[in-house]
Design goal:
By secondary structure, the chain is mostly helical. The protein is built from 3 helices and no strands. The chain is elongated.
Length: 71
């Protein structure tokens, strides 16, 4: 199974350097980056960011608290 170039480890962006991380560290980094980007795109509105990410508002609020992301 081949992964597209944009999601292979070592590609520029979010996945750069991910190959040296444990799976939990990699998941944490990707989640934090995606949540932060969605919140910026939605001007800090959790409801809109949750919808953009395909999460419930409650799930996103939990992850924001878990990762100490400032909205």
């Amino acid at each position: 199974l081949q992964m597209p170039n944009e999601v292979k480890c070592g590609s520029a962006g979010v996945l750069a350097g991910i190959e040296s991380m444990t799976l939990p560290e990699a998941v944490r980094r990707v989640e934090m980056d995606r949540i932060s980007d969605a919140l910026k795109q939605c001007n800090g509105t959790v409801r809109k960011a949750a919808r953009l990410l395909g999460l419930t508002e409650r799930m996103l609020a939990y992850k924001i608290q878990k990762y100490n992301i400032i909205t």
